[in-house]
């Protein structure tokens, strides 16, 4: 699967990294049947799965349950306790850094990325900044993942209260979020670091298929994992203000043109 990434400077060295929203995927929503705990145990007990694959199954199961619970809170009537919890959740989510949201969007299904950036930027610089973002993400989110997991036993003590254990569910969500960001960082680093051969081997092993090989065991004629796309139109939208700071109006126009999450991209602007 190809992911389209949009990269542009907000002000000086502060750049925006965002993934274009795939409308065909987002329209699917959660119409599929929610897996049960019995289904999860059946999948884990099946033969031929490694420990990492089983861990991914558990993470996907927990993610599905959290997303469905969040949708339930969103649809709760105004003034109810559930709606107040939803408002608190929105306040907490607003504090999550946009770089984390970006890295989480690089899922394990992504096998290549197309990077769209202003034509005025050097392609090597864009690639270097992407690699730095991915490498930094592997360090930061691994540290915070272990830190969040270590707090889970302490937050479970709040279950004695006659109220929903909000601290536990928030720390559980942060553990999941850092895990996804960590895996996204590792995937992005693989895609932008000339490791396309290793990626092809990884994909072939997952699909159980063999790929045509040359003397080195890899078909080098395959599609590259990284496509750099200098865009003149994006440069025109940015205008001459990128060095002094891009306005909120310009950011909104870019988000509409390239199908970006305006709320998340504006976080880059607010952090300047």
Architecture blueprint of SSEs:
Layout (H helix, E strand, L loop, with lengths): L1 E10 L2 E6 L3 H4 L10 H9 L5 H24 L6 H13 L4 H7 L7 E7 L4 H33 L10 H27 L3 H12 L18 E6 H7 L9 H11 L3 H9 L2
Parallel strand pairs: 1-3, 3-4
Antiparallel strand pairs: 1-2
Helix pairs in contact: 2-3, 5-7, 6-7, 10-11
InterPro entries: Mit_KHE1 (IPR018786)
Pfam family, one: Mit_KHE1
Keywords: Membrane, Transmembrane, Transmembrane helix
Shape: globular
Q: Quickly count the helices.
A: 11
Could you say which structural class the secondary elements and strand pairing correspond to?
alpha/beta
- The value of Rg in angstroms is 21 Å
Low-pLDDT stretches are 25-31, 195-223
How far apart the termini lie comes to 33 Å
Query: In this structure, how is the largest beta sheet organized?
Result: 4 strands, mixed
The pLDDT mean sits at 77
Strand content: 5-15%
InterPro entries: Mit_KHE1
Keywords: Membrane, Transmembrane, Transmembrane helix
GO cellular component, one term: mitochondrial inner membrane
Transmembrane segments: 151-173
